[in-house]
Amino acid sequence: MARPNGSSIHFPITIFTMLTSAIFSSLFILVSAQPWKRGIFIEPVTDCTQLPSYNNHTKMAGPWTLKVDSCYNGTATRGLCSIEGFESGQDITRQREDRPNTIEHGFITIVSDNDNIKTTLRCNGALNRIEAYVLSGVTPGALDWHAVGIDHHPSTGRLVWGKPQAVPVQAYRHYHRGKPVEGLFLGSNNETNWTMHSSGRDVSITDMKPFWVMRLMIPETSIRENEFRTLIRIDGS
Ligand SMILES: *[C@@H]1O[C@H](CO)[C@@H](O)[C@H](O)[C@H]1NC(C)=O
Ligand SMILES: *[C@@H]1O[C@H](CO)[C@@H](O)[C@H](O)[C@H]1NC(C)=O
Ligand SMILES: *[C@@H]1O[C@H](CO)[C@@H](O)[C@H](O)[C@H]1NC(C)=O
Ligand SMILES: *[C@@H]1O[C@H](CO)[C@@H](O)[C@H](O)[C@H]1NC(C)=O
């Protein structure tokens, strides 16, 4: 009599399976129809007027620093990052051999100590682009505003200036379960996740101090062993 018993047990299980899969597929339809319900949803802020300290007369928003926000350290208790809230700095990239006395490009960093020299950025409403106040020109260089963008190379994803191929950056508003999250975050091409790694023994030209390298997580890059995930927030937002 084992077989009939077995089939009578299978019957309610089959009903149960059908019910759960029906519930799950309707949940799936709900989720697909409302993408923000999946968790984080982001929206570009295309206009400088919406950024902190916008001046209607100069058409500039800023200057402000960039700040490490929601940094995650997988090896620390509760994921706490020692550099949470640290602000932007800068360094220069290797210059052309034939023009060693001119600073033509560089990148934005995060300082290794919040007492170190910081670098400010702004949104230029006349040219509709984000610029940084960086050391450039004939060495030792002078501070001036230059457009920044993402160096779209698999090994970097860094925030650079002076590279014509760099992809523009902009601010994004984040939504969590449909509700706007406080702050505006820097990103490019609908990506706002960054990674950070220490410069090691490299020091910045501005203060001879080590720094953190921030890289946007572009499709070509993957997180490395020594890197931490973070968002980059526009200070004052
Ligand atoms: C901003 O400036 C424009 C002219 O450039 C003017 O038309 C507008 O009223 C100003 N807006 C505010 C809020 O002052
Ligand atoms: C991450 O956590 C480890 C272990 O607590 C710590 O040694 C390291 O300095 C932390 N790094 C950052 C960036 O928070
Ligand atoms: C970014 O995301 C928004 C909203 O999901 C979408 O409308 C837009 O086309 C996306 N832009 C890019 C460049 O992927
Ligand atoms: C950031 O990373 C998280 C975790 O991998 C992912 O769920 C999310 O979609 C990413 N967000 C953006 C805006 O790139």
Description of the molecule:
Keywords: Membrane, Transmembrane, Transmembrane helix. The chain crosses the membrane at residues 12-31. With 237 residues, the protein is mainly β. It has two domains: 7-36; 39-234. Helix content is 14%, strand content 38%. The protein has one helix spanning 2-33, and strands at 40-45, 54-55, 60-64, 66-72, 88-92, 102-103, 106-111, 121-124, 129-138, 142-150, 159-161, 167-168, 170-176, 179-180, 185-187, 194-198, 211-216, 228-234. The strands form two sheets. Strands 2, 3, 4, 5, 6, 7, 8, 9, 10, 11, 12, 16, 17 and 18 form a 14-stranded antiparallel β-sheet that branches. Strands 1, 13, 14 and 15 form a four-stranded antiparallel β-sheet that branches. A hairpin with an 8-residue loop joins β10 (142-150) and β11 (159-161). The structure holds 2-acetamido-2-deoxy-beta-D-glucopyranose (4 copies). One 2-acetamido-2-deoxy-beta-D-glucopyranose is lined by residues 40, 42, 191-193.
Topology:
Layout: H1 2-33, E1 40-45, E2 54-55, E3 60-64, E4 66-72, E5 88-92, E6 102-103, E7 106-111, E8 121-124, E9 129-138, E10 142-150, E11 159-161, E12 167-168, E13 170-176, E14 179-180, E15 185-187, E16 194-198, E17 211-216, E18 228-234
Antiparallel strand pairs: 1-13, 2-3, 3-8, 4-18, 5-7, 6-9, 7-11, 7-17, 8-9, 9-10, 10-11, 10-12, 13-14, 13-15, 16-17, 16-18
The structure holds 2-acetamido-2-deoxy-beta-D-glucopyranose (4 copies).
Residues 189-190 line the site of one 2-acetamido-2-deoxy-beta-D-glucopyranose.
